[in-house]
Design goal:
The complex is a heterodimer of chains A (198) and B (182). Chain A is built from seven helices and two strands. Chain A has 198 residues and is mainly α. Chain A has a two-stranded parallel sheet with strand order 1-2. Chain A is globular and about 45 Å long. In chain B, α2 packs across α3 and α8 crosses α9. Chain B is mainly alpha-helical and 182 residues long. In chain B, strands 1-2 form a two-stranded antiparallel sheet. Chain B starts with a helix and ends with a helix. In chain B, a hairpin with a 2-residue loop joins β1 and β2. Classes of the chains: A mainly alpha (198), B mainly alpha (182). Chains A and B meet through α1, α2, α3, α4 and α5 of A and α1, α2, α3, α4 and α5 of B.
């Protein structure tokens, strides 16, 4: 029951924050992916950096259970799947989490995104044996690995470096990039004013 | 109405940290499979079945990893599925509290109308196709923007970096081609 309560609290907080940072708004996703308005990119980079520093710092201090980490396997299909997701993300302006949140916030087009998503997931369920047989799902570089070796974790490190310190260092780089990234990388960034936030 | 990136980034980072501190890293796309499983099992009750020590399915993907997806679909009141429902509720409340979204924007976002005019039907078709590709890709990759990109890179997972490289390599040119205005 505790886990259900946590699901409700953390889930609701996640949905509310996604709504407030503009991640559920295709105008903001489009601005980011066309490199015209990088505000959301800065938000995301800062979030990854913050999460990383807190998690690895907490693990070093013994405040965060290393067993809570969950590292996904690396394989060629991760890159191919990433390409597909990226194309669909850019076209629709939604990814799985933000699409659900956008629909909940009243966007009708996001309902179509969810419907398409349910069919897409079903299509993958039907074609999974072919991917499995192709070898494209076979582990790459050890599969479930982190860049450094995290003490106490059940995952191997790609490098013999301390995974904790490396995690904090990489987290700091994410934060730094968030700060130095300009608001726009291509012309047209100043058009923000013409587009209402909602 | 959108938060300053420093406040927003900090809050989002805190949510990702709270998840890994209290339970496990955030992920969403698996729940599309779980909902498909729930529907499939309702339509054809043989889809998911009990075994001596768990669950299995007539679908190889549902049955993989000792039937962990089959188990979740048979018991929807589990952490990850409730998490996604709560996420929707949180977004709903947050949007309501800031005054909601106007009718024109609800049908098709401004960036769509700036490039393709007032064509909501075409927008719905693109959103549907986009959703199809996004979830097909997410399941092939084993995660989505939340699970791979955010949670993955936060944990310094190699897979998270591979995923992010693929996602942005396709997303940036696609967005630049499709949305020249707005």
């Amino acid at each position: 029951m505790t886990s259900i309560l946590l699901a409700i609290v953390i889930g609701a907080a996640f949905g509310a924050v996604l709504d407030r940072i503009g991640a559920t708004n295709p105008n903001w996703i489009g601005g980011m992916l066309t490199l015209r308005r990088l505000h959301l990119m800065k938000t995301i980079l800062l979030a990854i950096g913050t999460g990383s520093i807190l998690m690895f710092g907490g693990q070093m201090l013994g405040l965060v259970d290393v067993g809570h980490m969950s590292v996904k396997a690396a394989y060629i299909g991760v890159f191919i799947g990433g390409l597909l997701l990226g194309a669909g993300w850019a076209a629709s302006g939604y990814c799985p989490g933000t699409g659900v949140c956008a629909a909940a916030s009243g966007r009708k087009d996001a309902l179509f995104f969810i419907a398409g998503g349910l069919f897409g997931a079903a299509a993958y369920m039907a074609t999974y044996p072919a991917w499995k047989a192709s070898g494209l799902l076979d582990d790459l570089a050890g599969g479930k690995v982190t860049l450094g070796s995290v003490p106490g974790a059940s995952y191997d490190g790609l490098m013999a470096l301390s995974g904790d310190l490396l995690g904090i260092a990489i987290g700091a780089v994410f934060v730094l990039v968030a700060f130095v990234l300009p608001d726009s990388l291509v012309g047209g960034g100043r058009r923000t004013a013409e587009i209402p936030a909602e | 109405m959108v938060l300053n990136w420093k406040t927003g980034g900090l809050l989002l980072g805190l949510v990702f940290f709270a998840a890994v501190l209290l339970v496990k890293p955030i992920g969403v796309s698996t729940q599309f499979v779980i909902l498909d499983g729930i529907v499939a099992d309702a339509v054809s009750p043989d889809f998911i079945s009990r075994t001596e020590d768990g669950y299995t399915s007539t679908n190889a993907y549902m049955a993989k990893s000792d039937g962990k997806y089959a188990k979740s679909a048979a018991n929807p009141l589990n952490y990850s599925f409730i998490f996604v429902l709560a996420m929707a509720a949180g977004a709903f409340l947050s949007a309501r509290l800031r005054g909601g979204i106007d009718a024109e924007e609800r049908a098709a976002p401004a960036i769509w109308r700036a490039n393709y005019g007032d064509t909501p039907m075409m927008r719905y078709a693109v959103a549907f196709l986009g959703g199809f590709i996004v979830l097909y890709g997410a399941r092939l990759a084993g995660g989505c923007t939340s699970g791979h990109m955010m949670s993955g890179m936060m944990q310094t997972a190699l897979s998270g970096y591979i995923f992010a490289a693929g996602a942005f390599a396709a997303a940036i040119p696609t967005a630049m081609l499709m949305y020249k205005r707005g």
